[in-house]
Amino acid sequence: MNRFAELLDRLVLTPSRNGKLTLLTDYFRSVEDPDRGLALAAITGDLHIAAVKPAMLRMLVTERMDPVLFGYSYDYVGDLAETVSLVWPQTPGNIPNREPTLGEVVAKLQAASRSDGPKVLAGLLDSAGISARFAIIKLVTGGLRIGVSARLAKQALADFGKVEVAEIEELWHGLSPPYTALFAWLEGKAEKPRNTALALFRPVMLSNPVGDGDLEKLDPADYAAEWKWDGIRVQAVAEGGIRRLYSRTGDDVSGAFPDLAEAMHFSATLDGELLVGDPREATGTFSDLQQRLNRKTVAPKMQQQYPAFMRCYDLLQVGGEELRALPFRERRGRLESFVATLDPSRFDLSPFVDFTDWQTLEELRRAPPHPIIEGVMLKRWDSAYVAGRPKGPWFKWKRDPHTVDAVLMYAQRGHGKRSSFYSDYTFGVWTGAEGEEELVPVGKAYFGFTDEELKQIDKYVRDNTIERFGPVRSVRADRDNGLVLEVAFEGLNRSTRHKSGVAMRFPRISRLRWDKPANEADRIETLQALLDR
Amino acid sequence: MRESAVTYNRLPAAELYPILETMRTSVLLHPRPEGLYCPPGDFFIDPVRPVNRALITHGHSDHARSGHRSVLATQQTLDIMGLRYGEDFAGTTQAARLGETIALDGVSVSFHPAGHVLGSAQIAVEHQGTRIVASGDYKRQRDATCAPFEPIPCDVFITEATFGLPVFRHPPDTEEIARLLKSAAQFPERSHLVGAYALGKAQRVMRLLRDAGYDRPLYIHGALAKLSEYYQSQGIDLGTLEPATVESGGKDDFAGAIVVGPPSAFADRWARRFPDPISCFASGWMRIRQRAKQGGVELPLIISDHADWDELTATIKETGAEEVWVTHGREEALVRWCELKGIAARPLHLVGYEDEGD
After folding, report:
1. How confident is the model at residue A382, as a pLDDT?
2. Is residue A318 classed as helix, strand or coil in its secondary structure?
3. How confident is the model at residue B13 (pLDDT cuts 50, 70, 90)?
4. Pick from A66, A69, A471: CB nearest B296
5. Domain boundary residue, one of B263, B284, B301
6. Which structural domain range is residue B103 located in?
7. CB of B339 within 8 Å of any CB in chain A?
8. Taking CB atoms and an 8 Å cutoff, what residues of chain B touch A413?
9. pLDDT reported for residue A251
10. A409 CB contacts (<8 Å, ≥6 apart)?
11. Residue B215 lies in a domain
C-alpha cells in the first residue's frame, strides 16, 4: 500500500509529463501483480469500489477523537481525506506487523457490504500509516485527482513494455483489472493477449499541421479536402448488440451520449466528429456542444435541447470486414453508401470541400461557412487508415487564430525548469466607461514565447511587482503602465465562472507589444463581439 | 485589585487555586512587548527588542537578536550569533554551561538541551520554590547535529506550538531522506534542490544524507557556508561540501547533484544554473499537500526541527507541569488538549516570533 501511496504523492506534485512517465514505469517495474494492475485501474478509473460518503468519514473520525480538535484540524488543512488520514488516532497495541498490500485493501473493500463498509474502512485505516490512509480514503471516496489521464497511463505501459501506445489502446477494452496477462506480455513473459471482446476500440488516425512550404511540394489532385469540425472526435462501434462511443484516446464516453448510442443500429466501426443539433437543419456551436461535455450522465431535457449527432469521416470496419488497409477513396465510397442507411437525424456525412488549387482552398479556409469549423483537412486519396500521426497522408490546415491585445496583470512562477521564472501570465482587457476604465482578466497563458522573451517578461514582472501572494505576483497595470501582450486563441466561450463572462480556448502569447501603451489595449467589447457571431 | 477581590468571593475554593497559582507564577515570568520578562531577576528570555539583560534559547534570528547590553546563552549559541551579526552583537556575553545553575539577583537559571538546533537550550527559571521552564523551540526526534532534549520537571512549562495541531505528525527523518535518494536515482539527469533553513535544518539534512551512505559532494548555497563550516568545527561531520557556483562547473555538472540552499534561493534567479531541477523542501509544513503544491515543491521532505503534535503532548505530560503556557504557533488546539487532560493552560500571545519558520 505504501508504494501506491508514495506513487500518488509523487504524481500529484510532479508537473512534467516525462517525470510522471518515469514514476509510473518505475512503479510497474518494481511492484508485483496484482498490486500494479490494481494501481493502474485506480488511475484509469477502472477500479470499482463502493463509495463512502464524506459525512460517514467525518463520523468515523469524530467517534475517535475530540470533535473540537478535529474541527481545528479540518479548518487548517481544508481537505477532508487528507485531514482524516493525518489525525486518525493510532492505538499502539493495534498496529499490525506489516501494512496491508493494495491487493488486500481492494479485496476487503470490494467484499464489504453496504452495512459493514464503514467498519471495514475503519479497520483498514487502523492498520495503515498516514500515506497509506490517504490512499485508502482516496480509493473509497472516488476520484484520485492526481493529474494523470488514462491516456498517460497507457503511454507509461507502452514505455514500460517498449511497444506502441496504439497496441495498448486497441487491447484495452478487452482487458480488466488487475491486467496480469497484459503485464506478462509487456515484460516479455507471455504472448500478446488475444482480444475476444466485442465492440473494441481501434486506434485513431491523426493528422499533422500544414507547415511552411509543405503545400508547394504537394499536388492538389492527390488530396481530398473536408471541413475540420471542432466537435469531439469519436469512434462509434456496434457489434453483437454492444454499442460504444470512444474518445480519440480510447476512453469509453457512451454514457454521456445515450441518444447517439441508441441510434447505432448497425454492425460497424465509424470514425467521425460528435456535434450537437440536427444535421438536416443546423449544427450547434461550440458553446452548445459544451453543454454536453464532461458529464457522466445526462438528463432527458439536455438530450432534447442539445441532441448529439455524428458527422462521419471514415468507415473502418463493417459487418466484421476490416477496411482500414483500403485506400481512402474506396473507404469513402463504402462510407457514403453506409451512412445513407442510418438515421439521418443522428448521422450524416462530412462533406467534401471542392477545390482545384491551394489558393482556392486557402480562401475557403480563411472564411469557413460555419463557426464550428476550425479549418480544413487534407486526406490523400490513396491513404490507408493507420494508427497514430503518420507524416504525409493527412494534414490539418487550421483557420488563423483570433488575436487580442491584452495587458499583463498577474504572473505566477512556473514549475520544473521554469521554477525560477514567472512564466504563467494572467492578462486582462479594458472595461468600464471612459475615465473609469479598469482591467478585467480574460485568460491565462503560459507558452507561445521564446526563452529569450521569457527572460524579458520575468525581469519586467520582478521590476514591476506591486503585490505578492505566494507564487503569484500582481504586476503594475493601469492606463499609463503595463505590458501589452498580443494573445492568440482559437475561440471564445461564454463563461459564468469568470468575471469577464468569456473564456478563451487555447490562449497563447503570440507577440510582446513593448511598443504599445497599455491604454491602447483592447476592450472587452471586442471579445464580446466575437461571442455573438 | 478590587475587581479581583470581587471575583474571588464568587468562586469556590477549588477554582480559586489555579488563579492564585497563575498569579504566583506570573510574578516570576510574564510577557511584555519586548519578550518574556522576569521581574525579580530583571532579565528577558529571547527578547525581540534590545534590552539590558537577555537570556537566549537558540540562534534563530527571531529568538536571537543583536543589540542587547548583555547576553547569556550557550557557547554555541553565542558563537552562532557572532557568525550572523559580527563579534560585537552584544555589550557583554556570558556562556552558560548546560545543567549549571546561575544566580541572577536571587533567581536561579539553568540551561538544558532542547534538541532544536546546535546550541539550543531550554531555560529553567526557579525562584522561591517555583520552577518555570521556557523551552524555546524544541523537538524530540533524534538529531545527530545537536544534543537531545531533556525533559525538566517543572510547575509551569512554556511550550511552542509551531505544529500544534493533530494533523502534524512528522515521519522518521530517515524515511524522508530515503525518498530523496530514491528520487535522485530515478532522475539522474536532473539536479535536486533541497530548500532548508540555513541554521540547523540544512546541516541536519546534510548529516542525514551522510548517515544514509551518500558520499558524493554536496553543493551548497553561499548563505550556508559559514554556518556549515562552524558545525564541522564542532565535530559534526558533513562530508565534502562544495559551493554551488557556476564557476565550479558547467550546467551539466550539476546533473544528478544534490544542492542545499535556503528556500528563498530556489525561487530566485540563482536556481537557473541547474539542469531541469526538482525542487525539494525540508520542512514540517510539507506535511500538508496544499502547502507543497502552492510552493511549487515537487518532492516535499517532512523534516522538522520542531516538535510535532505527538511530541508536544508527550512532552507536556513528561514535565509533570500543572500549568502550560503556549507561545507562538497554533495555540488554541494545544490549549484545548490541555483542558481535556485537566491541565491548566493559556496562550501567552508573545509577538515577534515567526510561527512559520521551519
Report:
1. 97
2. strand
3. very low
4. A471
5. B301
6. 2-167+306-347
7. no
8. 267, 296
9. 85
10. A426, A427, A428, A439, A441, A474, A475, A477
11. yes
Q: What ipTM is given for this predicted complex?
A: 0.90
Could you say which residues from 404 to 433 on chain A have a Cβ atom under 8 Å away from some Cβ of chain B? 413-417, 419-421
Q: Which residue of B has its CA nearest to A18?
A: B187
Mutation to test the A interface, candidates B298, B310, B332, most A Cβ within 10 Å: B298
The residue segments making up the domain with residue A513 are: 402-532
Q: What is the mean pLDDT of residues B180-185?
A: 96
Report CA torsion sign: A499, A505, A511, A512.
positive
A22-26 long-range Cβ contacts below 8 angstroms, 24+ apart: A22/B186, A22/B187, A23/B186, A24/A148, A24/A152, A24/A153, A24/A156, A24/A160, A25/A156, A25/A159, A25/A160, A26/B186
What confidence tens digit (pLDDT) does each residue in A468-495 have? 887 899 999 999 999 999 999 988 888 8
Neighbouring residues of A395: CB distance < 8 A, sequence distance ≥ 6: A207, A208, A209, A210, A214, A223, A377, A378
> Are residues A378 and A223 in contact, defined by beta-carbon separation less than 8 angstroms?
yes
C-alpha cell at B79: 558563537
The total domain count for chain B is: 2
Please indicate, yes or no, whether residues B135 and B242 belong to a single structural domain of this protein.
Answer: no
> Binning pLDDT at 50, 70 and 90, where does residue B49 land?
very high
How many other C-beta atoms can be found within 10 angstroms of the C-beta atom of residue B66?
Answer: 15
Q: pTM of the entire structure?
A: 0.82
pLDDT tens digit string along B211-264?
999 999 999 999 999 999 999 999 999 999 999 876 655 666 788 999 999 988
Residues of chain A in contact with residue B269, where contact means CB-CB under 8 angstroms, are: 420
Strand partners, B220: B243, B260
CB atoms A13 and B279 under 8 Å: no
Kindly report, residue by residue over A169-192, the tens digit of the pLDDT: 989 988 999 999 999 999 999 999
Mutate to test the interface with A, among B165, B167, B332 (most CBs of A within 10 A): B167
Residue A532 CB contacts under 8 Å (≥ 6 apart), including other chains? none
User: To which H or E segment does residue B16 belong?
Assistant: helix B13-28
- Residue A504 CA, chain-centre distance (Å), reads 16
For A403, the grid coordinates are 488575436
Nearest to A185 by CA among A205, A158, A145: A158
Q: Residue B264: give its domain's CATH number.
A: 3.40.50
Please give the grid coordinates belonging to residue A177. Answer: 483489472
Which of B170, B191, B273, B289 has the most A C-beta neighbours within 10 Å, making it the best mutation to test the interface with A? B289
DSSP B164: -
